[in-house]
Design a protein that fits this description.
Low-confidence stretches of chain A: 85-89
CATH class of the largest domain in chain A: Alpha Beta
CATH architecture of the largest domain in chain A: 3-Layer(aba) Sandwich
Shape of chain A: globular
Strand content of chain A: 5-15%
Number of domains of chain A: 3
Number of strands of chain A: 14
Mean pLDDT of chain A: 92
CATH topology of the largest domain in chain A: Aspartate Aminotransferase, domain 2
Order of helices and strands of chain A: HHEHHHEHEHEHEHEHEEHHHEEEHEEEH
Number of helices of chain A: 15
Structural class of chain A: alpha/beta
Radius of gyration of chain A: 23 Å
Largest interface: A-B, 94 and 94 residues
CATH superfamily of the largest domain in chain A: Type I PLP-dependent aspartate aminotransferase-like (Major domain)
Largest sheet of chain A: 7 strands, mixed
Oligomer: homodimer
Amino acid sequence: MPIRLTDLSLTVLDTQYAVRGPIVARAAELEKAGRKILYCNIGNPQALGQKPLSYVRQVLALCEYPELMGLDHKGIAERSSAADPLPEQRFGSAFPPDAIEAARHILEGTKYGLGAYSESKGVLAIRKAIARFITERDGIESDPNSIFLSDGASKSVELALRILISGPQDGIMLPIPQYPLYDATITLFGGRKVPYYLDEERGWRLSRELLDKAFMDAVRKGVKVKAICVLNPGNPTGAVLDHENIAMIIDFARSHDLSIITDEVYQEDVYFTDFRFYSFAKVMSEKGVDNVSLFSLHSISKGFLGECGHRGGYMEIRGVPGEVVDQITKLQSLSLCSNLPGQAVTYCMVTPPKEGSPSHDLYIRERDAIMSALRDRAAVLAHGLDGIHGIDCTPIAGAMYAFPRVSLPAGRTDEDYCLALLEATGVCVVPGSGFGQLPGTAHFRTTILPSMDEIRDEISLIADFQAKYE
Amino acid sequence: MPIRLTDLSLTVLDTQYAVRGPIVARAAELEKAGRKILYCNIGNPQALGQKPLSYVRQVLALCEYPELMGLDHKGIAERSSAADPLPEQRFGSAFPPDAIEAARHILEGTKYGLGAYSESKGVLAIRKAIARFITERDGIESDPNSIFLSDGASKSVELALRILISGPQDGIMLPIPQYPLYDATITLFGGRKVPYYLDEERGWRLSRELLDKAFMDAVRKGVKVKAICVLNPGNPTGAVLDHENIAMIIDFARSHDLSIITDEVYQEDVYFTDFRFYSFAKVMSEKGVDNVSLFSLHSISKGFLGECGHRGGYMEIRGVPGEVVDQITKLQSLSLCSNLPGQAVTYCMVTPPKEGSPSHDLYIRERDAIMSALRDRAAVLAHGLDGIHGIDCTPIAGAMYAFPRVSLPAGRTDEDYCLALLEATGVCVVPGSGFGQLPGTAHFRTTILPSMDEIRDEISLIADFQAKYE
């Protein structure tokens, strides 16, 4: 007899992931039937028109096929056959020398090129480059042996939660609204969700009062709270936490013996000129806190790289004893290693072309074009949505999403709304219930990634729809 | 207070993965101290001298940087800036036209290039190519919607076991000896291991008698047996199962309502001319069995590609009801999608250059050189080890390993042996206990991947060591 649905575990069946849920499935159906769909459901920059950085792709092409620079697959100047013509005259000179240098450095670090498994944690030379990046960004030390390369931040979330959830009594605090991967993974691993609300009225900041309330409620229910997850910049909220707010969260975690998982994948996506990104690592270090375990995540999928398809990123851990680090390494080794092209892109992300080097100007030009487009669209989208009667949208300080609040007719849910919006306009957004929201409120999430023209269309389509929705 | 070892779950702590265990860690220490280490512990072809296929790397370079063929990152003939010079004259002509065609086909399939998330299951055009490959290989139908691209077969194992293990009562039959990922993942997911022994005297075949015994023993202990895992060709055994043996396993699974996970990553690695690889899908189809759920795995890491670092592969499922397929898709969507370069390599694996096309001859030449080297080394290694007094080695019919049996002095374990071998000779092999073995026997696993000279050295080092070991 084949396997049946009833053979599956409740944790699998209960796991929900709205970003790729039923509304997206319906959009795909409509598209197949010939409807034009504007996919605003997912932060997938290159699917919505963003171009990859030339430098990153040049380095990747050179790493994949080092014959382009006259080298073998390990980056060594040997020919595979003496009979073949030397290719460096044909190709090498056409790539910028700093891209060639980066590719050679990556290949040297891997020792065997992109086709061999690396160490489970990732290539040491790349982990060293990440540690230098953290040091330069934050002015603090970073240990390459506390860095784990990953197939995207989702895999780091999984790894951290696998370590933190030891049984059904263990609780993980997660923001409401949150990126649904957290909810899904906690459910899948059989842990308890301990939701804490973000304060929409105060730009989605965290409040100590709401954190303490959530913690105490959980303790009263017998939950052993192990960690708090914080997304900064926030997804779906678009909030960028200030120094004071981060310091408060660290104090909260310390006072309750919690670990911190901090998802910092949108750290480059800060749009307000008077806001800046502070890492939890930096603030913890400034405060001299060394007795809180910190799991910080970063990714190549967001920022101005937007290299989602390459599935790369890393987790840096702090305040984690060596014997626990060994357990994390062991778990990582079950997948052998993260993919090497993703590791190579991570190297490029943390080691951009230096000022004065041949690729620098183009890199900066491409980067700034992307960032300024994102900034403009964030402003237009938030402003446009906020101007619609029945919709309130917090300004988008960072990340890649608007999360407007919608007034609904009695008896309607946000799922009803998003489905009706899709059917009526072809605009595909994700209902707020997929992220969680204060009971009695309704929201949806939509990305800032479509072109400015499409965003203007989207706003006017939503405005028309909203006026008639009943 | 930071997280402590005692905060972790027993399932995490109990998980063991010998292929990257303490002996490998010791080898890395010795290497750091200046010792020459011969790493025979892992099937990592390109780390042991195997060269990537030129065609695969050309296609990858073109997909990563389509400007090499005068296209943008989505494979469309548009320039990112009209001011830039057109590159096709410089590069495009230097790549074989069929590599360019394959790259264009892949980019067209992805729609947005390698930098965007694909569908959770993987790019449809690539799944269609895999379905065609299965149809050509086996003469049976294959449905692209039953195929899930993965970051290597390890991730497919994880996905299948996540579906099959619903609680601590659920048991998974796994061979002894086995590839330790199975043991590790079952432990991590809190399932029960139901080991069945392979018959070393009969070339590591499966026996119905031993399967029934293992099944009944488990049932008596209250285990609900859900599935059987079969590795064909076998790792670490090197066995290639014949048609009759596969048919027997299918009958066994059917008679006990078990699903089958079949790990067929070494399907290209068959060295004996009178042996051939039969897929479980083919044999099941020939027998008209449609009421057994089958999860078949393949990978780009083994065979003659050896592209481990690219982390690619797929799982094809059969006899799985639609509502369970939806659950698998949902779980896959938590990681969003597998990495796109790995998907592109998978496309190349299932769609090699056609006869008469420009890349065909070089492809065949490179492929045959790799396969004949593997075949020669398999023969020399098995014969050489078998000739050592105190060591018995089954001939290596397939896959990439020898798994010889060693006679040990009283009081010595295979771990002692492998550690002493490493310290004395620099040869790094994995103790049999990491894979499981009949109580009272001792083995080790060593790959056929080093060069012929290194394999000859290895044999003579082991022979000298064995003569003196006490």
